[in-house]
Each structure stands twice: as structure tokens, then as C-alpha cells.
Amino acid sequence: MDNQTLNSIGNLICSEWSNNGIKLGNEEGLKGRSKLILDNVSDHLLNNYTKKEIQNMTLLDIGSFDGYIPYYLSDLGFKKIVACEPRKKNIEKGISIRKFLNLEEKKNIEFIAKRFEDLEVEKKSFDVVSCFGIMHHIGDHFSF
């Protein structure tokens, strides 16, 4: 994939992807934001669960955007991660970014292009639920 094609899929400032010295999305005042969130979440999980426990756990990430957070959280060894993002274009953006950077696709992540409200899951069917950067999209926080 060339830079022109990658740029055509849209803005990359919500995540900071990199591989082999190539960086995407490391712009403006958001520099370090994605890694800070990822590091804090990873530290919290590793301080509360063993690696063996995490390997038997499932994670639901709501509002996954381009998949940065679930992609790197998968390195902790979750049994399964469901990344729910209402905009299919954002999922496609993440796929394109990972291909451009030659990052492997993770087999334990399922990306679903749906609104959280439309996701059909059993109650209590995930061990961990994350929802970073979506509260400003939610009209009724209590119902959410």
C-alpha cells in the first residue's frame, strides 16, 4: 500500500502506530496519548491478574476506532477479544495501517462493525470491558 492510499482512508491522530522505524498518527497534542492509555490499562490488568488468568479471559472493547488498544492488549494473551466499532471505515483504517506497517494480524481479535447497543452478547459473557474515548458520543451515560 502506498502513502496516497493510506492517506485516503482518513485522519490517523487517534492512535500512534509504528513498526520498523515508521510511525503513523504521532501528531499535535496527542503525542503519547495512545501509549499512555495502553500502558496504564496493561499495568492495571497485570497488577490484578496473573498472565495465566488473563489467558483464560475475554475482553470486549467498545468504540475500538482503528483497533490500536485491543491490538496491543492482545499481547497480554487474552483468550478472545471482541472489538466493537460502529464505523466500518475505522476498522478498515486499522487493517490498512497494520498492513502498511507489516504488523501481524492477531487471531484472538474479532472486529465487529456495530453500535454497542446492537451487539448481541449474553450478559456477563466478558471478563473485562473497556470503552476508552467514547463517553462524549453517549447521550445517556446512565443507560449506557
Q: Could you please describe the fold and organization of this structure?
A:
With 144 residues, the chain is an alpha/beta fold. The mean pLDDT is 84. Strand 3, helix 4 and strand 4 form a beta-alpha-beta unit. The protein is globular, with a radius of gyration of 15 Å. The chain starts with a helix and ends in a 14-residue tail after the last strand. It is built from 5 helices and 6 strands, in the order αββααβαβαββ. It has a 4-stranded parallel β-sheet with strand order 5-4-3-6. A two-stranded antiparallel ribbon has the order 1-2. Helices cover 32% and strands 16% of the residues.
Q: Can you tag this structure with a few keywords?
A:
alpha/beta, two-stranded antiparallel sheet, 144 residues, 4-stranded parallel β-sheet, 5 helices, single chain
Shape: globular
Oligomer: single chain
What's the helix count?
Answer: 5
- Order of helix and strand elements from N to C terminus: HEEHHEHEHEE
Biggest sheet record:
4 strands, parallel
Q: Give the rounded overall mean pLDDT.
A: 84
Pairing-aware structural class of the strands and helices?
alpha/beta
- State the strand order across the main sheet: 5-4-3-6
**Total number of strands:** 6
Distance between the termini: 38 Å
Give the low-confidence spans: none
Percent range for β-strand residues: 15-25%
Share of helix, binned: 25-40%
